[in-house]
Amino acid sequence: MITLTDFMLVSAALFCLGLFVVVSKKNAIQVLIGIELMLNAAILNLVAFGKYDRVNNGGQMFALFAIILAAATTAVALAIILNVYRQYKTIDPDKINRLKD
Amino acid sequence: MMQALFYLMAFITLGSALVVAVAKNLVRSIFMFFVTLFGLAGLYVLALADFVAVTQIVIYVGGILVLILFAFMLSGKETLAIAQQQTNRFISLNNLPSVLLAGLFLVVIINVIFKADVNNLPWIKAAITSQVKVSDANINNIGINLMTRYLLPFEAISVLLMLALVGAAHISRKEEGSI
């Protein structure tokens, strides 16, 4: 029998991998992928708890909202990344150290 | 059977996420992220959330991943060069701090999970014993709940999504003259 703890352990491991990616990578797109991994870990937790709430379906509903939120985040973040690339010709977050004026 | 499938899906998800974390090649890590998303969709199905699984595939794989690939292609040769010269093995002196951070965080979260002992929460035990049947009416139920009980978050998220898309279009617009 798969219990809730199993899902939460998978989710914890996924979250930590995402954290590692966010902290260690030198490329804004990879940092964004790390953030997506962390968001997915959170969504997995929501869905796993939602398994036990079949009447109101709160878990699944907020998992859907979180997926939409992730889509909005990605769209804005990629627009920012493209703009940064246009100005600096690099997307290494360490090298971006000037304000506009 | 369910257990074997769960372990298979968990293995696929975590293994491909590990490849995403350690891959030197940016393109490879993006495509392994694709595999991670499919593994997660499988896990959602095992948690009896088929609609969320399908939404995950449609939005993440169809939308977000294509968007990431586009940004990667548009940001040119420079990023490829950076990605190639970035020689990071998993454990090297450069990213020892981040490995340490992620590992310690994992220890903390696992401790919390075992302390919380979620399997014995009262409402979860009640849900296991109450025998609400797993049926095909799941999507039906989601639709009705979305229009009644969760109407306010639904509207809020739709306004937010529109704002985000307009904002993204505004940010990525080419400015004439300035810059």
Automatic annotation (TrEMBL), chain A:
Principal localisation: membrane
A single Gene Ontology CC term: NADH dehydrogenase complex
UniProt subcellular location: Cell membrane; Membrane
Annotated catalysed reactions: a quinone + NADH + 5 H(+)(in) = a quinol + NAD(+) + 4 H(+)(out)
Keyword Oxidoreductase: yes
Highest taxon of source: Bacteria
Record-linked Gene3D superfamilies: 1.10.287.3510
Membrane topology category: Multi-pass membrane protein
EC number(s) stated in the UniProt entry for this protein: 7.1.1.-
InterPro entries: NADH_UbQ_OxRdtase_chain4L/K, NUOK/Mnh_C1-like
GO BP field: ATP synthesis coupled electron transport
Keywords assigned by UniProt, alphabetized: Cell membrane, Membrane, NAD, Oxidoreductase, Quinone, Translocase, Transmembrane, Transmembrane helix, Transport
Record family assignment: Belongs to the complex I subunit 4L family.
Record's protein name: NADH-quinone oxidoreductase subunit K
